[in-house]
Amino acid sequence: MNNPYAPIPMRVEKIVTETEDASIRTISLSFAEGSKPFGFVPGQFSELSIMGVGEAPFGIASSPMTPDALDFTIARVGTVTTELHYLEPGETIGLRGPLGNGYPVDALKGRDLLVIGGGFGFSTLRAFTNYALHPDNRGGFGRLVVVYGARNPGLLLYRDDLRNWASRDDVQLIVTVDRAEGDWAGAVGNVPSHVKGLEVDPASTAALVCGPPAMIRYTLPVLDALGLAPSDIFLSLEMKMKCGIGKCGRCSIGGSYVCIDGPVYSLARLRELPGEFS
Amino acid sequence: MTDEITGRDALVRFLERLLAIPGMTVYAPVAEGDGAVFDRISSVSEALLDFPGAVRSPRHILTPMTEKLLSMGPDGRVEEAIPTPGPAVLFGVRPCDARAIAFLDRVYAGGDRTDPYYRARRDALTIVSLGCREPRPTCFCTTTGGGPLSPEGSDILLEPSGKGWSVRAVSEKGRALADATGIAVESDGGNPDAGSIGAEMTPRVDIAVLKKVLDESFDDPRWQTLTAKCLGCGACSFICPSCHCFDIVDGEEDGVTVRSRIWDTCQFKAFTKQASGHDPRPTGADRFRHRMMHKFSYCIDSYGMPGCVGCGRCVEACPVNLDIRRLMEAFGGDGLE
């Protein structure tokens, strides 16, 4: 019987320090000998573990179109994340995944898309954006708008991607910071204030949203005012998890487990569940 | 050749036969303090056969309080610790506890995400339950869909009959065990006393009405008042036969690195607290509401039955007498005529 608790070995290929304060790093993992590579959907997550230290869930931050290496963006907040930060290339760690449902890629085909992220909730939206911008996929989606915010310029992630996207004419990119610092010449203000200014055709638009609770709270009314239907707004939820397979009970919200029925929910579905996220 | 065991000493004789089966592990109620718990026995004299109900549920036999999942030796190889138990009998559980195992089956072994650790222990286990002659003051099994002679989850149900017991094989597994012991089983309806047992246990609320009301009561201010005295100690969860939440932790055991799961409870403050510090369920009232909602609404959605079998242990164990039946009545109390 397949053991859903047994991790597969992954080799650390690269570690990138994302933020100026070094609190957030992205590690790239390749499938080590004995691991069967898997496909996945943007928005899915995995449990990463170091035996003897522990295990924690992280969204897959890279696109499934680059399947040989998986990126995970990790904020250093506890024991497991600290150990993950100090890995060296060549070391082996454990992975269980892919887990969760991911963004509804098929249902989004042909739609105009608003990708709205804040803080380090942007990781799976980066995966989605790179997926949508891949030459094999770009034609399958309509207009693509990315609004991404951080508290200050030093906390912006994925600078190479941001530069790349900014240079393209098939994606509209708004990168904003709450507080301009240093030589920041870009947009200032919180994420919802920039979403507010967008002109969209609500009938053909879907939004993908992931970020801190305050960003979500103030962005949802803006999307409503733009005319988007709750069934066209998709949120990726954060919830403490352990098993990742709907057994341990930790991420229960209503009759739903975030680890298997989520982490991506439409706002329409979320409104049927208890208001623990409102 | 089969024997009737309908006499007063039926349980002793049944247990003797079970212990005589080569290689069979037998779990039965044994004395601990002034109560009973389920543990492995090697002789009939260890078993406590005249007991009102075990203080702790038998769920540790299927999901040990600490259960090793993986281990890693010095060579770095990760080994899976899936158990390979020989045949075992869980003897003497009450129908409520057997029904809780039927519930755990849906959690751990249902759908396409079977838990191999649970599956291994469960496949090896045959459940022989004892029907109840008299309810205890804290019992409410009939409210949650069970009853003193409910066969759900049992492989063999021993029904009180006259001064002895009537043996009923509920499943094929139970029939095979009865065959192995050479004990005759009654056909359905063979127990003339069955109809009168539990007749006085009128359900307290209509469980369907309770679910409906709970689904509309998430923001009810009474969650604050009704649960204000809860200490958040988690005794209700740890003593519950159907609670099943667990944590996964790494540690060391005899010089070997191990990953284990350990029982956990949604009543603890850290249960849903995220690494960022955000907690979607920050107060005791939030957490008690979740316990109620999970048992009487969410589990019905997810598993088709409530996550409560009405054993009454939490009513007895709660240090501040927070009685779950009062909450059930508060939210579903108008559901019965």
* Terminal CA distance of chain A: 40 Å
Task: Tell me the strand percentage band of chain B.
Answer: 15-25%
Which regions of chain A contain 5 or more consecutive residues with pLDDT less than 50? none
CATH architecture of the largest domain in chain A: 3-Layer(aba) Sandwich
Strand order of the largest sheet of chain B: 2-1-5-6-7-8
Kindly state the percentage of residues in helix of chain A.
10-25%
Total individual domains of chain B: 2
Characterization of this structure:
Chain A has helices at 79-85, 105-108, 123-133, 159-166, 191-196, 213-226, 267-272, and strands spanning 8-17, 24-31, 45-50, 54-59, 69-75, 92-99, 112-118, 144-150, 172-177, 187-188, 205-210, 233-236, 252-253, 256-257, 264-266. Chain A has 278 residues and is of the alpha/beta class. Chain A has two domains: 8-99, Beta Barrel (Elongation Factor Tu (Ef-tu), domain 3), CATH 2.40.30; 105-236, Nucleotide-binding domain of ferredoxin-NADP reductase (FNR) module (Rossmann fold). Chain B has 337 residues and is α/β, with parallel strands linked by helices. Helices cover 28% and strands 19% of the residues of chain B. Chain B has ten helices and ten strands. In chain B, a hairpin with a 2-residue loop joins strand 7 and strand 8 (164-169). The chains are: A alpha/beta (278), B alpha/beta (337). Chains A and B meet through strand 4 and strand 13 of A and strand 3, helix 3, strand 9, strand 10 and helix 8 of B.
Task: Briefly summarize what is shown.
The complex is a heterodimer of chains A (278) and B (337). Helices cover 20% and strands 30% of the residues of chain A.
Q: Key terms for this structure?
A:
heterodimer, A: 278 residues, alpha/beta, Elongation Factor Tu (Ef-tu), domain 3, 2 domains, seven-stranded mixed sheet, 30% strand, globular, B: 337 residues, six-stranded mixed sheet, 19% strand
Q: What are the SSEs and their pairings?
A:
The complex is a heterodimer of chains A (278) and B (337).
Chain A: E1 8-17, E2 24-31, E3 45-50, E4 54-59, E5 69-75, H1 79-85, E6 92-99, H2 105-108, E7 112-118, H3 123-133, E8 144-150, H4 159-166, E9 172-177, E10 187-188, H5 191-196, E11 205-210, H6 213-226, E12 233-236, E13 252-253, E14 256-257, E15 264-266, H7 267-272
Parallel strand pairs in A: 7-8, 7-11, 8-9, 9-10, 11-12
Antiparallel strand pairs in A: 1-2, 1-6, 2-5, 3-4, 3-6, 12-15, 13-14
Chain B: H1 10-20, E1 25-32, E2 35-41, E3 66-72, E4 78-80, E5 88-93, H2 95-108, H3 116-124, E6 125-130, E7 156-161, E8 164-169, H4 172-181, H5 207-215, H6 222-226, H7 235-238, E9 246-253, E10 256-263, H8 284-303, H9 313-317, H10 324-332
Parallel strand pairs in B: 1-5, 5-6, 6-7
Antiparallel strand pairs in B: 1-2, 3-4, 3-10, 7-8, 9-10
